[in-house]
């Protein structure tokens, strides 16, 4: 018996209202991702990329359509159920790291695990192991203010992976970095996501990086198209 897709969006519609005007940002967007698949999302600015990722990550609700995770319809879950599912199943990586300035690199990666009620000793070991995979063992006790841009983003990716999510959603994860640093961070991201057999949807403007993923889709006119 075939396993259901890890994640799917079916005919997603999202409309924003401004006065008497209605802007249909998403107009029947659909995608299915299988276990371990890494998919590039290319979308010009202002076409609804972030909205799509927020809906996929259960941060926003669609006006129509269905969201399915591991065969389960999660479209109409309560806020509490959505929050619990995000905590357990979904990891987010943004263009800007959003690290907590008062916590060390290690503590930033420990935090989501503690929220998930993982014992402190286990959470610290998991965090140290993740940071080691990103080549940051020697920086784990440093505050974000003492880290480079690339190091901060690698810590942010480690934090997103801390609870071993099945799904990774990334919104321009290297878009704020220079070319050399971007390549290094992206190499780390792909390596760790593939090792974890996670499923990932990664938005990027960088077509060279996009071509390194399993397939590429483009958001145009509110719909998703294969490239």
TrEMBL record:
Question: Which segments constitute the ABC transporter domain?
Answer: 7-227
Which Pfam family would be a valid example here? ABC_tran
Q: Which domain of life is it from?
A: Bacteria
Spell out the molecular function terms from Gene Ontology. ATP binding
Note the Gene3D superfamilies from the entry: P-loop containing nucleotide triphosphate hydrolases (3.40.50.300)
Q: Answer whether the UniProt record assigns the keyword Transferase to this protein.
A: no
Arranged from A to Z, the UniProt key words for this protein are: ATP-binding, Lipoprotein, Nucleotide-binding, Transport
UniProt cross-references to PROSITE patterns, sorted A to Z: ABC_TRANSPORTER_1 (PS00211), ABC_TRANSPORTER_2 (PS50893)
Q: Which family does it belong to?
A: Belongs to the ABC transporter superfamily.
Its protein name is: Lipoprotein-releasing system ATP-binding protein LolD
Encoded by which gene? lolD
């Amino acid at each position: 018996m075939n396993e259901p897709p890890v994640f799917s969006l079916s005919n997603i519609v999202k409309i924003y209202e401004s006065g008497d005007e209605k802007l249909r940002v998403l107009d029947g967007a659909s995608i299915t991702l299988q276990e371990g698949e890494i998919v590039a999302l290319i979308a010009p600015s202002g076409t609804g990329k972030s909205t799509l990722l927020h809906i996929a990550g259960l941060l926003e609700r669609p006006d129509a359509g269905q969201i399915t995770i591991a065969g389960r319809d999660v479209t109409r879950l309560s806020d509490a159920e959505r929050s619990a599912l995000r905590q357990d199943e979904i990891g987010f990586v943004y263009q800007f790291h959003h690290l907590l300035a008062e916590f060390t690199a290690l503590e930033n990666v420990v935090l989501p695990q503690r929220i998930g009620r993982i014992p402190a000793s286990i959470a610290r070991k998991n965090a140290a192991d993740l940071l080691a995979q990103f080549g940051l063992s020697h920086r784990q006790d440093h505050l974000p203010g003492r880290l480079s841009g690339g190091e901060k983003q690698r810590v942010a990716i480690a934090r997103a992976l801390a609870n071993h999510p099945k799904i990774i959603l990334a919104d321009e994860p290297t878009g704020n970095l220079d070319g050399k640093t971007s390549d290094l961070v992206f190499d780390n991201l792909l390596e760790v996501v593939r090792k974890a057999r996670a499923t990932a949807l990664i938005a990027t403007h960088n077509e060279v990086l996009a071509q390194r993923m399993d397939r590429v889709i483009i958001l145009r006119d509110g719909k998703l198209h294969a490239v």
